[in-house]
Write a structure and sequence with these properties.
It is built from 1 helix and 6 strands, in the order βαβββββ. With about 100 residues, the protein is mainly β. It has one domain: Archaeosine Trna-guanine Transglycosylase, Chain: A, domain 4. Strands 1, 2, 3, 4, 5 and 6 form a 6-stranded mixed beta sheet that branches. Strand 3 and strand 4 form a beta hairpin. The longest helix has 8 residues. The radius of gyration is 14 Å and the shape is globular. The two termini are about 15 Å apart.
Length: about 100
């Protein structure tokens, strides 16, 4: 089975918590077919005054310093335990080389 890489814009307070190792899960709308073993690329972004998101980038359009790669190790689907239907809670682990 081929695993996918999902690039996800992430607000600074949540990105920083993952970076510090305090947040080991991610809650998202289940609109991408997330699977165990998939890779999440969490991209630190800011909300603009227009209500859109702006990923922090360098001149090449990418800033690896502001991207965290995590592997999905567990998925808890919505509709149970108080999680809204259509959402998932994903356990995050280190990406195996």
């Amino acid at each position: 089975m081929t695993h996918q890489t999902h690039k996800l814009a992430t607000w600074p307070q949540y990105w920083d918590a993952v970076h510090r190792g305090e947040k080991t899960f991610e809650v998202r709308r289940d609109d991408r077919g997330f699977q165990r073993g998939d890779i999440l690329e969490l991209q630190r972004c800011e909300r603009t005054r227009f209500g859109t998101f702006e990923v922090e980038m360098d001149f090449n359009g990418y800033h690896p310093k502001h991207v965290i790669r995590k592997e999905i190790t567990y998925i808890l689907t919505g509709g149970q335990f108080g999680i809204e239907p259509g959402y998932v809670v994903m356990g995050l682990g280190e990406v195996n080389p």
